[in-house]
Design goal:
Keywords: Membrane, Transmembrane, Transmembrane helix. The protein is mainly α and about 110 residues long. It has one domain. Helix content is about 80%, strand content about 0%. It has four helices and no strands. The longest helix is centred in the C-terminal third of the chain and has 29 residues.
Length: about 110
């Protein structure tokens, strides 16, 4: 699973970081602020993909209890789909956090 999660995290993290950096540049935020948000997007995206791969037992236990309570076993395709979906959702949530945080948070007036 790690052989799929790591490249996926790097690709999605790079896309998220590029989108955040481009928006921050367009809005005229300072260089430190742009790099901080973009680096945060890349790091959070990568971590979002690595968590299911590195902590698979706890991750799938939480998945079975919270989402799919009647499951007996998880298929390899389902495991891959859930892991990748988790990483994408974490990445999207961070980009949304950037969107709201940079517009209405403490750096909004920059």
């Amino acid at each position: 699973m790690l052989l799929i999660a790591l490249p996926a995290g790097l690709v999605v993290g790079a896309v998220a970081a590029a989108a955040v950096y481009a928006d921050a540049t367009r809005r005229g935020l300072s260089t430190v602020t742009r790099l901080s948000w973009a680096g945060g997007a890349a790091l959070v995206s990568l971590v979002g993909f690595l968590v299911p791969a590195l902590f698979s037992d706890a991750f799938y236990r939480a998945y079975f209890v919270g989402v799919k309570a009647s499951a007996v076993a998880v298929s390899p395709h389902e495991a891959l789909a859930v892991s990748l979906a988790f990483g994408v959702v974490v990445s999207v949530l961070f980009v949304l956090l950037y969107g709201f945080g940079s517009r209405y948070g403490p750096v909004a007036g920059e």
